[in-house]
Specification:
Length: 398
């Protein structure tokens, strides 16, 4: 990262958070995956490193930083997709480490990063962000195999650019040029690097691995209140709050009978009463409502289900579908078979009883072992995770 004078003061007290692995499987080397999240200085986290498996659950008391960890992951995903800083961090001062003091220029900021494993081996990304007095990236570093492939630093605070240097390994060891200070440089490299030398091709491969690992993320927090009401027909892509669940069921039931049967079986395992099918029907006013078919002509509208049942149903649907059904932005230039969908679920077990949480985790394990879906969630009760093999637990308890 850039030398100390060019980045915000990050003076904080040291605290180390380490994951407690229970079980897991090795990531598929053909599909880039984020395998470590680093919160060097972010909100209440300091010098924290979290190993991420195919199914990772953050747990700990209220205020321990579970939601903040998922927020940092989601922000990196947005930056990897080319979003501006303001979109990734709508409330930058809230991300500044608690107790961090401003420097002589009144600057304060935070540091986050991650590691993406894949065909290029482990690739590290570390980002320093200035939150005050104005939001901007002041340092970024992309490394692979101990080699710095991209490094940026804020040299002139009066300009809205950072000075970048990326690996070339040609007649000149590095190429230098300006990059905007409100976007992730790694995501911009394909537009700036020609790929003529072995060094440039290595830079592009590492950057692509990081971007692919970050972009296919679906941050999901089902809202039972919204799921109960009939919805107008739309594109059939599930929104993060799952309020349009009925129209998505209408689509998925018609498109893939096998996947719909798996969803029905999963709902039957976690919900009260008999479940023989999940239905979606158009109403006279043009809206669509969802129902649970109990058999023998008995159908229960979704608005009569409990909050835990609705959240369980929505999350089961998320785990059993893919980017084509979820409102995500995967890398179109890379085949879907070489990408992994990562579901971020804060409050994963919110409103659920022990049986629902256990069945949902079992479903997540089955889907994650296939390599196409990963889940990073936050739960309030770690004992539920202990009942299921194949879960990596990150315990943030003091």
């Amino acid at each position: 990262m850039p030398p100390a004078p060019t980045v915000p003061d990050m003076t904080v007290s040291p605290t180390v958070s380490l994951p407690r692995p229970i079980a897991g499987t090795e990531p598929c080397p053909d599909r880039p995956n984020v395998t470590e999240l680093r919160l060097s200085a972010f909100a209440g986290h300091r010098r924290a490193r979290f190993a991420l498996g195919p199914l990772t659950l953050f747990t700990g008391p209220s205020g321990s930083g579970k939601s903040r960890a998922l927020q940092a992951y989601a922000a990196l995903a947005r930056l990897g997709g080319g979003a501006e800083l303001q979109e990734a961090f709508p409330d930058p001062p809230a991300c500044v480490p608690e107790g961090a003091r401003p420097d002589a220029q009144r600057r304060r900021g935070f540091r986050i990063g991650c590691t993406a494993d894949g065909p290029e081996g482990p690739v590290r990304l570390d980002v320093a962000v200035q939150a005050e007095p104005e939001l901007r990236i002041v340092g970024e570093r992309l490394t692979s195999g101990g080699l710095v492939l991209l490094e940026t630093a804020l040299r002139d605070p009066a300009r809205r650019t950072v000075q970048a240097a990326w690996h070339t390994a040609g007649s000149s060891p590095v190429t230098r040029g300006p990059l905007p200070d409100d976007r992730l440089g790694t995501a911009l490299l394909p537009l700036r690097v020609a790929g003529k030398t072995d060094g440039q091709r290595r830079v592009l491969a590492a950057a692509e691995q990081m971007v692919v690992a970050l972009r296919s993320v679906f941050a999901c927090d089902p809202s039972p209140r919204r799921m109960r009401a009939p919805v107008p027909p739309g594109a059939g892509r599930l929104l993060p709050g799952c309020g349009n669940l009925a129209e998505v069921l209408l689509r998925t039931r018609a498109e893939c009978g096998r996947r719909h049967a798996l969803l029905t079986a999963a709902v039957a395992a976690g919900c009260t009463g008999r479940v023989v099918d999940l239905l979606a029907e158009p109403l006279r006013d043009g809206t669509v409502r969802a129902l649970v078919d109990r058999g023998n002509g008995v159908r229960t509208p979704l608005n009569l289900l409990g909050d835990g049942e609705l959240r369980y149903l929505a999350l089961a649907l998320v785990l059993l579908t893919g980017p084509g059904v979820l409102e995500v932005d995967p890398v179109g230039e890379v085949p879907a078979a070489l990408q992994t969908l990562t579901v971020l679920a804060d409050g994963l077990d919110r409103g659920m009883d022990r049986r629902q949480a256990r069945e949902l985790l079992r479903l997540a394990v089955r889907m994650s072992t296939r390599g196409h879906v990963r889940l990073v969630g936050a739960v309030s009760d770690v004992s539920r995770a202990a009942e299921v093999d194949g879960v990596t637990v990150v315990d943030l308890s003091p």
